[in-house]
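User: I'm preparing a small set of examples for a lab meeting where we compare how different chains pack in three dimensions. I only have the primary sequence for this one, and I'd like the structure in token form so I can line it up with the others. Please keep the answer compact; I'll paste it straight into my notes.
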Amino acid sequence: MTHPIRARATGPLLVATSVVMAAIAAMIGRLRSFEPRLLGRETPDLLTSVLHAVVGTLFWATLTWTLAELFRATLCSPHRDTVDRTRTRGRRAWLAAQMWALLALLMIPLESADSAGLTFEQAILDIPTYLSSTPSVTAWLVVAVLGLVVALLALLTTHLGGLVMATLVTILAALPIPVTGAISVGLNHDFATDSGALAAVGMTIAAACVLAEVLTGPSPAISNRLAWLERLGALISLAGGIVVTWQGQAGHSWLSDRWGVARVVLLIAATVWVAASWLPRSRISGWLRLAMVAIVVTVTGASTQLIPPRYLVGQTPAVNYLGYELPSAPTTGVLLAPGRPNIGFWVLSMLGIAGYLVAVTIVKRRGGAWSSARIGSWIGAWVIVIYLASAGLWEYSSMQFSWHMLVHMTFNMLIPALLVLGAPVTLMREAFRTGDQIDDGFNGPQDCLMAALEWRPTKLLFGPFAAWIVFIASFYVVYFTPIFGYLMRYHWGHQWMLLHFLMAGFMLFEYVIGLDDLPASLPHIGRLGFVITAMPFHSFFAVITMNAHQVIGKEFYQALSIPWVANLRDDQNLGGQITWATGEIPMALVLIALCVQWFMADRRDQRRVDASEDATLDESLAAYNDMLARMAGQEIKPHNPENPS
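Assistant: Understood. Below is the structure token output for the 645-residue chain.
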């Protein structure tokens, strides 16, 4: 906990920093009246623009504060019992999350007014009409709900695992706002959306690390624990910011407009931040990093009132939905050859591989062993993702249902099956256990991981039966409702859909053929039942897709008007066939793998039983011989199993 004297010194400085941030944001919002006029927003309201910039900046500041307090309550909290019945561990995070939720709720009418060219008063008096007017307004509602969830968890949970899950929810809350904002418009917006999402998450995590250090005070243990997390987050934020600026400027000079100038300021501050994160920890470097964080957060929150040059460039329906013009008709060579890369899954794959190899290195350096088969399975899964995210097949999967289903089924069936054979949870336990051997008086990653796995709601929400339900229901809920057509209209929607199906497959296969020892595991007969009961639902979905009279995502595909797809129903029929073929074969392989694991487990159990029986038999024989010796009146010698004579 922060020392009272230090709290009295740090608190006013942080409040003063927030006031300065709000003042600068207000000045940026004031520039909105000098920006180019957009259709429907020819006369922006000055008060709305200023409030939008100020409240948006304060939202990002409180989101960062919430995450910093959760870091202090979990990863950097004094080592004590997992259960805190006084509920004091998350009290500061509860206060910060409430402020974040209130600011997000206030942004709903502000975003509605800004999007519709109205005053704040007009929007707030008719807020139900505008709640779903644009994805940005809906995003603020989602973020407000997430803030309330985090606040309730921080207030009510007594378990460390609840605070760990609140930390993950807070990190996810950084995603909805950037992916639905200015970066989702125009040519190459697929690159910008992924980069902006990564930059927002990296910025939030790195900024929370800096703030947690400032709030806690000088502590080498906490600095060492958060240093690499801050460096990686700041670097990702800088790299993502460069791509976002490149896309938004649309070929114009980066200093030719106010939005470009603001972005250059952000990038300079992020560069200084990255460099300062490598400096030795001291009070001066801490406040320097905090100053750079303040600049980055202010520009991030307030620059949405400035118009990127990309907004002024006309776009076709294909560019609007996809981020690029329609290519030529696909051929086998085009589908298999390198195509338009997917930045989001590329970065996710590289982080997955790098993190796994670092963990294996830590385990082996400590003298442990790790199977090469597990390493190959994990890396092989991410190599498939990298290939798909770089091949022409991915590009065409965004515009044609049949190829979409091929990519979708690979993400839902093949890749998760390989990932769970890498035993990632077990590896994290082993690697984190090494770090937790350092007795610095704080909870370590191992404590947080085990607390999250053992928390009762985690067992319920991510348990085997929940995994089975999500795996089966996702097909029908997504594809047989308007959800699919809505998600396909946005790059972030397509990315989220594939990521969801990847996680759904991972959850199911983790309990079926996974090598991790989880708190809620299943016997082999139960695993077999999961596979057998899932197969008919999958086949039934494929049959319905092939024979359905209604075209899935009809409005989306009609808007694209793909010239080489003459009949959408025929393409959907092909997609159903691909779904059946690419689903049944991997499921059969999973069934075979499960049977092999079951057989090997039975053999291991039998060997243990035999060894136990042999030991018991030796003891019984020795006792019998001793009894005979007593009856014969002989001297009883101690029994030595290693020397039967």
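A couple of notes for your slides: Confidence is low (pLDDT under 50) at residues 1-8. The two ends are 67 Å apart (CA to CA).

User: Perfect, thanks.
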